[in-house]
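Input chain follows. Return structure tokens only.
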Amino acid sequence: MNSKRRSFSNLRCNGAKLGYIEREPRILLRQSGQHVKFKWLSCLLLVLCLSCSLPEPEISQPPIGILPSNRERKAPPILGIRYLETIGSAGQGVGEFRTPLGLAIDEQQRLYVADAGNNRVQVIDNTGNFITEFGSRGWQTGEFNHPTDIALSFQRSYRLYVADTGNNRIQYCNFVDQIFYPISDNVDDILLDRPEGIGIGRNGEVYVVDTGNHRWIEFNVAGVPVAAHGGFGSGREQLWNPTDLGVDSDGNVYIVDTGNHLIKKYDFSGNPIDTWGGEGDALGQLWDPKCIALDEWNYLYVTDSGNRRVQVFTPGGKSIIEFSTSGLLQPAGIAVSKIGRVFVSDAEANDIKVFQVFLIPRVVFQLLKNF
């Protein structure tokens, strides 16, 4: 590698801008059928919205009252999702990837990439400029063996968690001392076995997908295990090689049950609520799903790896849209930014595909609701 690597502490510096690998206008888009509920004026408004080529601007609110939380507001419908660009290329240099997997976005919209084949984590900005990297192959703290997922916690202290899968552990650091520590790797006298997914709860709890043991585990903020759920099988409370999870604003946990081609939903106490998916390529079905991400409206974005696409579900399990591009070979990790950009790591193409979500603008959505 010719370029000098940046230090982990220097997260705000800028690197050389990377070239884009592809720009394909083609997208694959399909939405579930819905009955027309609005009059012709509403349809006209929708057509005008679809013709927009820019993300939804911020809408100023009247200086009265307080906006309710997203748990109380109805999510605006998704109009479409468009492919934008591809970031990175195959290699070992800065901004290059080998089997990129888990993704996470921080509050400054920087993208963290679990660069599994290079045994490191890279940090880039949302246009692909390299910022820094950390980690190397090894088994000591701060070293990794095939890291597969990343999670960022902002609740109590700014922490970064890495699923150090090949070393059968989860490591974390805060951005004060910048030193990595392992969280507890022993639950009921059983060691973690290939943990592949991490999620952060509402109060800073850490949820870990213990893939080899076919379960998921809740840790408190101190890294002490609280509860474990699952066990090998295809039953309602069983899992088969789960790979990732997500937590919504109500504290519900969504597990990607990869071996069973399902998404399983649990409440904040770990009780099973719902299951959807099933092996297949129809809308709503899954084939070898890998990762899940939630946006600010609690829409669930699932990388449907075997079908080379991403599906978007409501929290109730209804598939509302799918999207892809012809260059998407093996979608793996996924993250959604505050402005609706969807980053998808392509483990086979060794790059990151970027998409843009288009929602009905809030003002138009309110008009349609009141029409």
